[in-house]
Structures are given as structure tokens and as C-alpha cells.
Amino acid sequence: MPETQPMRLPDMPLHDPFVVADGTTRTYYLYTSNVPAVSGVDGVGTMVYRSQDLRDWTRPVVVFLTEEQEGIWATEGGWAPEVHTWGGRYYLFTTLHNQDRELPVPPPGRWGTPLPLANYMRGTVIAVSDSLLGPFTVLDAARPTPPAHLMTLDGTLYVDPSGQPWMVYAHEWLQTIDGTMEAVRLAPDLTRTVGDPLFLFKASDASWISEQIPGGVPHQLPPYVTDGPQLYRAPEGSLIMLWSTYEKDVPGPDGTVGGGYVQTYAVSESGTVAGPWRQHRPLVRDDSGHGMLFHSFDGRLMMIVHRPFEDARGKLYEMEFQGHELRVLRQRTDLDGGG
């Protein structure tokens, strides 16, 4: 594809998408993991596509590379990049890992069996830049932001009504079998955590998962996954968390088999990150997930997800709130090519 020809979502490799709608330039910045075959830059990191209409996109620019971070603890990953504004600067959150830095294997989970896979250092780092186009420089090259003895991923920024910043992240099922969502306070400059993590909920709290697993025993791996949190304040004041997980393959009434990755959400009707969190049924199935909400420049509430999980592409949906309930209005196939 020529360098000057716009790209479209069906042609754009896109895992764990995150959109920043920059009102100053009326430009959408779409962040994802670096794909060297598309960006032309080798290395683990983050790239960004840009658009003014959500249909035609520029070729991506690389904004973060681990190899450019002196003394960085990680070697792989670059998953789930997000960019947030804080204190007049831009902060990149992205998950890295290092399989050569093993973690102590915790005791067997509640199923009474050894945990299935090795545990190694994985977690979200925070990097800063004065531009949405980077380059981003990691704040702490020695360790991830969440506690380093925990195997975590997909950290996101949440700022509570008092102005306190938090990182909300998924605690890996690889350590817990029943994956959890947790939150930890951040220092005002985001360089470190303050206090102990706060447990929010576990994946099996979603009753529709347990309904599909006879006897409550997982029959597939991964069994109970927490993935891709994003927090959003609903118009009536409740706090919404988009998150993703896997469901068991179940034959439908028409004989088709559903399952795979799903986009779901939870609601804290108290409006606080502490909850309690009430789980809702999936918004989108069909091997879709890791979504986030943003507003288009014409005022529409939009959700972007990736589908399918392997060789993913971005899919766009118009959304609406009805009280505490988040609903899909329609897929924007005119923008994302359908499928």
C-alpha cells in the first residue's frame, strides 16, 4: 500500500485498541502494539494510527520502544497500550513481561490442583511524553507499576472524584486460576504505588460464566480470565468497567457454537472503585473484546473492540446508556468494514 494512501480498519492489524479523541486537532489517535511489518520499525513497543473521521487512517508511527528504555526490566509484550492526559502531560500505560525472570509459584488454587503454567514477571509500566506522538520514556525502568511479585496485565488509569489517581489492572489467572480485577493508588506523579492493592471482583463473579460450567469446575483453559479493564463514568453517576473474558463453547438453538473471547462490563452503583461491582452479560461475543469507550467529535458514544482474537482488526459500535445499563445500538460497518 502506498505511503500516502489512507488505511482502513479491515487492513489494520490491531490488538487491544485504545482511542484518544484529541479535540484540539480533531484527530483520533488509535494506539496498539507495534507491528513491525506495518510500522516498518522493529522492536517491542507501541504504534499509533491517526484519523479525522474514524474511516481513513494514516500509516502508523512508533511512539514507544522498550529497547530505547535504558535498563528496562522487560524484553517482550507491548500489550494493551493506553494514553491518558494527567497534569498537562501524556502518559502511556502498556504491559511488558520477561520470561527469564521467574516468580515464585503460589500455592494451588481453589480447585486443589497445581497451577497450570509457569509464573514470570509481567506487569504494566507507565511512560511519559509531552506529545501524543511520543516518544514516551518509562518512569521506572526497574519494575512494573503494580507489585512486581504479582503477575498482572492491562493496567488502566482511573481518577476518582477526589482527584486521586489509581491503576486498575487484571491479576492473571496464571497465578490465581480465577482471575481478579484489582486497583492500587498511585502517587500524584504516577511514579509509584501508594498502599496495598484493593480487590474489586473475580472473573467467576460473572454468573453467566458459571451457568455454562457444570458443577462450577472449569472444563477449558484459560478457565476464568480477567482482561482489558477500562473505567467510565455513566451519566447518572455510576461507575462502569468494561472488561473481557472467555466463555465456554456452547451450542445455540440454531446449532451454531458460541464461545471465545467476549466483551462484557460491570457496574459499581456506588460510583466508587471499591464497588460493590455488579456483573452484566456480554455486550459483544463472536471472539471480540478488550474494548474501550470514547466520544466521537459529533457527540456519539462509541466502543472499539478487536475481533477476532488472532490477527485482530478493529470493530466500532455506537453505544448508549439507559440508567446503569450500557447497550449496543449498532455496529458501524460503514467504518469498520463489517464482519
TrEMBL record:
The keyword Isomerase does not apply. One of its GO terms (molecular function) is hydrolase activity, hydrolyzing O-glycosyl compounds. Pathway: Glycan metabolism; L-arabinan degradation. Keywords: Glycosidase, Hydrolase. Belongs to the glycosyl hydrolase 43 family. One of its GO terms (biological process) is carbohydrate metabolic process. It comes from the Bacteria. The keyword Ion transport does not apply. InterPro entries: GH43_arabinanases (IPR050727), Glyco_hydro_43 (IPR006710), Glyco_hydro_beta-prop_sf (IPR023296). It holds the Pfam family Glyco_hydro_43. This is Glycoside hydrolase. The lineage of its organism: Bacteria, Bacillati, Actinomycetota, Actinomycetes, Kitasatosporales.
